[in-house]
Amino acid sequence: MQVERSAGSGGTGGVRVEEDVNPLKKSGGVRGEAAAAAGGGSGGSDSGGATPLAAQLTAPGHLAHERPPPSASLLANKYLILDPPEGCSLHTCIDVNTQQEFVCRVVGRDSWTIISAHYRLDQHPHINSVREVLMGDEYMYLVFPASFGDLHSHVRQRKRLRESEARRLFRQMAETVRACHRQGVVLRDLKLRKFVFSNSSRSVPKFI
């Protein structure tokens, strides 16, 4: 796990994981080049190669759940962060240099307890590992590997799960919650959208 511009440490003892925030509703110091990166408006500064990428985001056939610019922000001249789907707090972010897709969770800048919780649980098979942590003026940005959708969308799409599949998924979720509790981590915002799939067969959900 890599932390950039970090200046604190997680606490000890019990950790309460707070709800996520949406900084795209309120600028937190990362919008500076968003307009230029999106190819619209006057940014006046170099977009770090994001303009061609923004054009791809608006092309037909792109992922339906992603909203095209200008509802996007450029973070650290590295990631283009898109607005999350309705009802979801997780953002899609794209490396403007490699065009590799990731998942981004945004929390308050003082949410070091969340970083501490991820350190404690980083090796658990059903906890999504943090790839990188970036600091903004008001928020911290936790970057995770790309997922194959979340459990909420999977259930809505399937409408009905076989009992064997539902039992297996529920068992993995319960094991994840138990592991968190054993490490003193209380999940305040527990819901299906927080479990993402790490494989294309959607058999291994990971808490993010």
Highlighted features:
single chain, 208 residues, alpha+beta, Phosphorylase Kinase, domain 1, two-stranded parallel ribbon, 5 helices
Describe the structure.
The protein is α+β, with helices and mostly antiparallel strands and 208 residues long. The protein folds into two domains: 2-145, Phosphorylase Kinase, domain 1 (2-Layer Sandwich); 151-207, no CATH class. It is 25% helix and 23% strand. The chain is built from five helices and eleven strands. It has helices at 34-38, 50-57, 112-121, 151-158, 163-182, and strands spanning 2-3, 15-17, 72-75, 79-82, 90-95, 101-108, 132-135, 139-145, 185-187, 195-197, 205-207. A seven-stranded mixed beta sheet has the order 1-7-8-6-5-4-3. A two-stranded parallel sheet has the order 2-9. The chain has a two-stranded antiparallel sheet with strand order 10-11. A hairpin with a 7-residue loop joins β4 and β5 (90-95). The longest helix is centred in the last third of the chain and has 20 residues, at 163-182. The two termini are 14 Å apart. Residues 5-13, 15-19 and 25-70 have low confidence and may be disordered.
